[in-house]
Each structure stands twice: as structure tokens, then as C-alpha cells.
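Researcher: Next entry in the queue.
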Amino acid sequence: MRHAALQAWLLVGLAPLSAALTARGAGFDESKLPPPAATQADYERDIQPIFASACFRCHGPERPKSGFRLDNQTSAHKGGEHGVAIVPGQSAKSPLVYYVARLVDNMEMPPPGKGEPLTAEQVALIRAWIDQGARYPAAATQAPMVKVFSISPALRGVWVSGNARQFREHWWMPDGTSGGLEGFAWQEPLGPGARIAGEG
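Model: Structure for this entry, 200 residues:
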């Protein structure tokens, strides 16, 4: 009984470790990958079209799955819920390469039924791009900064019994319903790590 309990504890305890190692590329078989393309890979010419057709629908700025975005360098290099996916300079240690080559069970990208598998030539270009630093153009280095403005509407109803005209004149209130603005809040980014905000 104790042996079975210990075995179960070990399985539970090792599961997160196994997932973490997989996320870092441990156990991937590089021999099954196409070699990196023998060319200077350009993001806008070679990589962005691949990502746009196969990746951005799920890993773009709109509700990125697993918290992983590929549309800008900061987010792509940071990774998502499954850990770092791109290791600049080391495509063989970059889980993204194995995902798009469909060599990892349950992590095939694009997922089956969600898009056409990447060709060996496309995977080779991604490998070359990562080996050369996985650099994005300057305009796509940072995640886009978004201005935020929100308002809180208010609705008020006033019904008067008695001398309604005198009440309205005294309190400057119309009879019946009226709307207005209870409050507002806004914030605007000034740059990396800085923003200006206000409320009222």
C-alpha cells in the first residue's frame, strides 16, 4: 500500500517537471527536423507571411491562446503559458520549431483542422530566422500600446407630488428621467513602462 502511494506521489510530483522540461525543448529529436535554410532570413519577406497565414489567428493581438503572441518581438521572445517557445540563436532548442514541424503530440501547430501544416521549406526558414537571432523589424519590437477610455453612465428618475414647478426651480431638476455621466477614467501609454492616467 505504501509502495503504491509512493508511486502515485512520484507520478504526480514528476508531472510538472516533465512538462517544464518539454517546454524547454528537452527530449526533442532534432534529427527529424529539416535543416535551417541556407539563406539570410528576413522577417517581413520570409517569416511574417508564414505567421500571418498559419499563426496569427490564434497567436496575434486578439485574445492570444495560451498567452502567446507572435506579432511582436517582446511577446514572442517572452513566451506564454507553456514557457519560452523561441530561443534566439538556437532553433534546435526552440519548442516553436518542433510545434510547427508537428513533432510534439497535442502541440501540433497549426492544430489539425485549423490550418495547413507548414512545409519543410517553411520550417527551414523559421529555423534560419531563429538561428540568426529571431529579430523583428523595429516597428514590431514592442507590443502595441493601447489608449484606454471608459465612462460610467448614470440614469436618474425624479417624480414630484405636490408643487412640482417650485421643486424643479429650487433644485434645478427636471421631472421624470434624466441621464448623465457618473464618472470616467482614461490612460495613455507614454512609452515602455510609463503611462499617464486620470479619472473624474
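Model: Residues 1-25 have pLDDT under 50 and may be disordered.
Researcher: Noted, moving on.
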